[in-house]
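Quick entry, no commentary yet.
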Amino acid sequence: MIAEKKYLQPVTIDEALAMTNIAENDFRFIAGGTDVMVNRFQGNETSSCLIDLTGINELKQIKKVGDYLSIGSLVCLSELKNSPEIKNEFPVLIEAANAVASPTIRRSATIGGNILCENRCIFYNQSEWWRNAIGFCLKCEGNICIATGSKKNCYSEFVSDTAPALISMDALIEIIDIDGEQKIKLEDIYTGTGVHPRNLNKTAIIKSILLPLHQNFVSVFNKLRQRESMDFTSLTTVVSANKNGKIKIVLGGVDPKPVVIEGTNKSNTEELIIQAIKKARAIDNEMLSRNYRREMIGVFLKRSFEKLII
């Protein structure tokens, strides 16, 4: 019987949503699996049922919808460079996608999966026996943040590279779940709480990412990491300016959610940089120090504004 299956493969969104009832809430959606399967191997993801969305062709399309470019959530990161619209209007998204992991992983990893990748911390992303030896943290049913000693707040880091690029260009997302459909700003799905970093229902499926067309975005992307070939970000910065002079700064890797600062081409860039540094709640929970990463925020943003000629 289907209720006994541990691995389900829907071919439509409706079928996928119906399967969430069959799995009795003990399930996890999976696409490329480059994040979920690693967390399962470490014992950080323990759902008894996986619902594989890769058979839903509706989620693999890139097309124009009104004044937006719609990018299906199952489009692989390696495929973004093949879209003429993305090349012409949103090239920073290709740059951000190419900064994720390695070419092999990018052929499996999806854009939807990247914007939903789990927050990371050096004390959390370890094997189960390692975590048991040192003590479980807030993010894995412990009672203290090992990095800070806090008994209330988890500061595991938001590490998506594509999401900062998308947010800097005012991306929306289309979400469907058992309660219906809605469109919201991408940055609004992130809570800033490391234990529960997103405010999406468990049954929610991201149908597509919507980018506004004809805004003439000019963007600068930077990423700090130990090994340029494949590491998760220690700091991602994206600065975008549109045809109306709006400026949007987005940081990743230095807070449990994206750090977003907005201004205009009339704004004092030094003040915008100070705001970004102050808003970032980086702590010492990864290989590069908090102080170094905060210093690099200023370095990256100054370089970005020089390239934008603001």
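second:
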Amino acid sequence: MSATIEPIPRTGPRPDETRSLPEIGGIEISGVDLSENLSRERKDWLMRTFRAHPVIVFRDQHLSKERQYEFTLTFGEIEGLHVNRLVDAVKYTPVHTVSNIGSDGKPSAPTRERGNYYWHSDKSYHDVPSLLTMLHGVEIPSRGGETQFANTAMAYAALDEATKQRISGLRAVHSWERSRIQARGLLATEEQKRERPPVDHPIARTHPDTGAKVLYLGNHASHVLGWPEEEGRALLRWLEAFATQPAFVYSHRWRPGDLVLWDNRCTIHRALPHEDMDKERRVLHRTVVKGTVPY
């Protein structure tokens, strides 16, 4: 299942190339320089492309943090700062750095922050969750460290009708506190719990641009509202396992200069640990666009 690839509006002599990512209905684009100001025509094309492809990979980009910030605004309002800023205010800026670099300037393996290694949709524990996330690969290890994406619209479409009826109208509770526990990471502080209390969203939400039904779940989803907690968690685990079958998953092998953006409304993602994590540097810049209330 993949959308038709729309030609890129030409602006110069460099070749523009596209390649479909059929596992997830995504697209890879080469030959576009996002460090330049985009014409109105290209911005319109970009928005149409994003609506048609839940994951877009731009190759060979060299963006400053300032330019990434400006480019992100093409898609909407950049979100407020991460709840984790209450623990590490320096790290979490509007364009913040995701890295394995320790305070001594050397690469290190993660200790307790392992939430990114679990399937999730960014900020689903917000009452107004994320629309889009963008990662720019600045320094990339020679092997490993892939990011995997699962298309939850494709997964929902593949469910049998009985399951679709069963989950219709059900809502999952999404909780920052619970996701910390499930990821066996640093536990939420009392201040974090006050700032981000649990919220609930439809398990089968409607994508506001396409109208498609999608599964909205992941590690931030704690249990099913109104159900016994263990029964609800079992259902969410089953749905997540269904949605992350190889048929619905694209594994992105990073190259330096990659800029990857994805639609949090119809995908879940996770990072894979890279080999020799304590020997090779991994540095990415991240921005997130605010979405709308799921329905």
